[in-house]
Design goal:
Layout lengths: L9 E3 L2 E3 L3 E3 L9 H9 L3 E5 L3 H9 L5 H13 L4 E5 L5 H13 L4 E4 L7 H4 L6 E6 L2 H13 L7 E4 L5 E2 L14 H14 L5 E4 L5 H9 L4 E4 L1 H4 L8 H9 L5 E4 L10 E4 L3 H7 L14 E2 L5 E2 L2 H4 L7 H8 L26 H9 L9
Parallel strand pairs: 3-11, 4-5, 5-6, 6-7, 7-8, 8-10, 10-11
Antiparallel strand pairs: 1-2, 9-13, 12-13, 14-15
The chain binds flavin mononucleotide (FMN) and iron/sulfur cluster.
């Protein structure tokens, strides 16, 4: 019998995460406390997504939760059964950013992971205490800018997530940079690791396209301290995606997965989707009339003023991402069509599994403690 190599522990801000796997935050409403707490219990780090959380928690509980309360609630529930859990807060959701951070900190999140924009002010919002502050970057340049800015605030990242171009959700690359050989995760890792060492040797966690135990070993041999994985957790029993979403993932082949840009996300970043997603198809056919009734996407102009979401006026070049993603999480499926975001590896997913069995596959350790 072939035994798999044991994975090394990941240490972030003094906390020892037995299995160096962070389950990536998946908004809207895909990674909520059922998934995050299951991952935490298996020895990884579970991450809820803050996107539209006030609406999702209010609907679930039948009580009105504001952004602060929803972040507090979801992080608390994720940590209740034990293990490490935190929250992903997207920089692009500027309106809710600070309240989500405060709620998560007050609930004792083990980590706040933040991307889709540079989280330049994150350490200044409230003293983080034991919570690790972890930016997501897709280049050394972005990490350098963050480290310099945070230094001025007297803070250093507790770790960094380096996300390559194969990831799900929004991508930190321009459309014409996504396929460049120089932007593969394998090529991006060494200089980012070097920079992390220069700024005090904090852990580097790689994300985007990691699928097997062997992938994890490969990147850890190259200098990564851990991995963040999204797509593999999307089709787990514990994920809060609708069954239709999970089935779309199972049925998707490589040709069905595209990077949408026109029509694309109103957040202004390339966004990977299953091309048959009903809201994407309708956007291509210009079928949806613009209607803004959620309002999470606000961008800032160069003077720092809030601008109108580009999908509010017209759906010709932008789909209504709030409603599309909320529908994929079962929030309003009778009113809005779903939009399915996935990583390229969705083409390899062929069944829904439990978090426990996914962890035994990825670590090579069965629940009896034996190597596979
Ligand atoms: C359904 C889905 C939703 C995602 N939502 C977010 C998000 O809200 N914020 C974020 O920073 N990353 C998001 N991501 C990216 C993941 O957290 C993760 O970094 C990425 O998917 C890793 O690549 P993989 O899917 O190949 O494992 C999302 C990914 C997926 C698949
Ligand atoms: S137009 Fe749609 S995507 Fe834009 S803020 Fe309004 S609800 Fe959200």
């Amino acid at each position: 019998m072939e035994f798999k190599k044991p994975l090394q522990t990941l240490v972030i801000k003094g906390k020892k995460i037995a299995v160096p796997i962070i389950q990536g935050g998946m908004g809207v409403g895909v990674s909520l406390h059922p998934l995050a707490s299951a991952v935490a219990l298996e020895g990884g780090m579970g991450i809820v997504s803050s996107a539209c959380l006030d609406r999702l928690v209010s609907k679930r509980t039948g009580k009105k939760f504001n952004t602060y309360q929803a972040a507090f609630e979801e992080v608390s529930l994720s940590k209740a059964a034990g293990g490490f859990a935190g929250i992903n807060i997207m920089g692009a959701l500027v309106h809710d950013f600070n309240d989500s951070v405060r709620g998560a900190l007050d609930a004792g999140a083990d980590a706040i992971i933040s991307g889709a924009g540079l989280p330049l002010t994150l350490p200044a919002i409230q003293p983080p205490g034991d919570t690790a502050l972890i930016p997501i970057v897709s280049s050394t340049r972005a990490l350098d800018i963050i480290c310099k800015k945070w230094e001025k605030l007297g803070y250093r990242p507790d770790a960094v997530v380096l996300e390559g171009p194969l990831a799900g959700g929004h991508l930190g690359f321009k459309m014409d940079q996504i396929e460049l050989e120089s932007n593969t995760l394998e090529r991006l890792l060494p200089p980012v690791k070097e920079l992390a060492i220069k700024y005090g040797d904090f852990p580097v966690i790689v994300a985007g396209g990691i699928y097997t135990h062997e992938d994890i070993i490969k990147f850890m041999k190259m200098g990564a301290d851990g991995v963040q994985m999204g797509t593999r957790f999307l089709a787990t029993e514990e994920s809060s995606a609708t069954s239709a979403y999970k089935n779309a993932v199972i049925n998707a082949g490589a040709d069905d997965i595209i990077v949408a840009h026109d029509p694309g996300s109103p957040c202004g970043l390339p966004f990977r989707v299953i091309k048959q997603s009903p809201m994407y198809v309708s956007a291509l056919k210009r079928l949806r009339l613009p209607k803004c009734d959620k309002g999470y996407v606000l961008l800032k102009d160069s003077d720092g003023n809030f601008t109108v979401c580009p999908a509010k006026e017209s759906n010709e070049h932008h789909f209504c991402i709030c409603n599309g993603l909320l529908s994929s999480a079962g929030y309003n499926p009778d009113k809005e069509e779903p939009l399915y975001t996935v990583g390229t590896n969705a083409a390899r997913v062929d069944r829904i599994v439990s978090v426990k069995s996914l962890f035994s596959e990825l670590t090579g350790v069965t629940s009896s403690g034996q190597g596979l």
